[in-house]
Amino acid sequence: MDNKNIENIIKLSDDLRWNIGNDFHDSLAEGIYADASSIVEETVSTGSQKSRATLDAKIDRIVTSRTWGFPIMFLLLALVLWLTIIGANYPSSFLSWLFLDTMHPALKTLATGINMPWWLNGFLIDGVYLAVAWVIAVMLPPMAIFFPLFTLMEDFGYLPRVAFNLDYLFKKSGAHGKQALTMSMGFGCNAAGVVATRIIDSPRERLVAIITNNFSLCNGRWPTQILIATIFVGAVVPQYLAGFASLAAVIGIALLGIFFMFFTSWALSKTVLKGEVSTFNLELPPYRPPRFWKTIYTSLIDRTLIVLWRAVVFAAPAGAVIWLISNIQIGGESIAAIMINSFDGFGWLIGLNGVILLAYIVAIPANEIVIPTILMLTVLVTGTSGGAGAGVMFEADSALATGEILKAGGWTLLTAINLMLFSLLHNPCSTTIYTIYKETKSVKWTTVATVLPIIMGLVITFLVAQIWRLF
Questions:
Q1: How many Å apart are CA 97 and CA 37, to the nearest integer?
Q2: Which neighbouring-strand residues pair with 330?
Q3: What pTM value is reported for the model?
Q4: Residues in Cβ contact with 170 at an 8 Å cutoff, skipping those fewer than 6 apart
Q5: Category of 383 on φ-ψ map: left (φ > 0), alpha (ψ -120 to 50) or beta
Q6: CA atoms within 13 A on the CB side of 347
Q7: How far is residue 401's CA from residue 20's CA, in Å, rounded to a whole number?
Q8: 281-303 pLDDT, tens per residue?
Q9: How many C-beta atoms lie closer than 10 Å to residue 256's C-beta?
Q10: Which own/partner contact pairs does 292-298 have at CB distance under 8 Å and 24+ positions apart?
Q11: pLDDT in tens, 24-66
């Protein structure tokens, strides 16, 4: 066969490819499954299995219906998040008492007893140790609750129904239906969500899922959202509505993140990641009782501890940096104070302040240490008594005390709202950035996934600040 015939065949196949239309693959898959279902109905008949299939079909008519599918899905997500947040309070409080209130003073006493130099004492104990302690106390309990709950729903057979419900929306945005599962995983930890994108076969759609996973609020950002909403949003309504208003604000931010995920997926698929949406055959597995203890063990070992270890590795140097910039002085002023003053002008422009911007820079390794860092830097700048020395991360004993410290630093409702928005729209933590690079093997796409949310966050907070000040 000569080259001319080969070129003609290629041209013909290309013309035919575009003539079959965009729905050909969907129609083909539906036809195959319809024929298979018809053959099975005519040739297979087993009483117990038929009864089981009938029960599954009845459940699916509810959980995948157009009327009830989405409300049930959001209700279950809210329930899982509520159990995670409420359930994590007690172990987090215990770990905070153990690592911060008990072990930290004991280590300080030991360091003094052995005449450790003050700078080494502060660097190791007030810097490295406290950062690691905060990450463990804040990050471990939510992950230890969320991941098992998520895996139990997966074993039960519900998560494929979530993918089924969201498949149409993801397809319209140029993404893959399985991204619904990686998005849900991101609510526990973005690094784990990025790893979960391995279930997507298409390289293009997997890359879209990786880049947009940061729009799922991870467990490291939930405490920031809840605390700021409680202090500032709950204060603008009557007392009996404060709890509802705070919860509505947090859920609203989470839903806004889902919107940005769809929007960014659509934008990427229309520009730098242009391509055809792949069709996948989603076979809904039968419902079955989860293997409880095996699920608990697997989720704790394969997900929780691995992700926690990565966070600890990155949090340790962050604690060291926080202590150093707060204690090293230039011209009688700490590096932290100099940086805060230089950031204040730009911070005001986007409805934030220099303390918040610096906190997010030095807390890149772990979102869990953002609020303690903000409090420490606010005390450093304002001189407000926080019960801690320079560069020592701490958390106020109550939301009321935290609110007083923040208000002394010039915080307003605009500052709080834009912080909640910036907490949603900012760069991934270093653990997630490292995971993105490991999964993509690309500096280019790792940079895009890191910088894109920051640009969006700066634009959104700038617009909110300017509109707020106009009215």
A1: 59
A2: 333
A3: 0.75
A4: 176, 177, 179, 180, 262, 265
A5: left
A6: 21
A7: 66
A8: 667 778 888 777 877 777 777 66
A9: 17
A10: 292/152, 295/148, 295/151, 295/152, 295/155, 296/148, 298/151
A11: 666 766 777 677 777 877 776 655 555 555 777 888 888 888 8
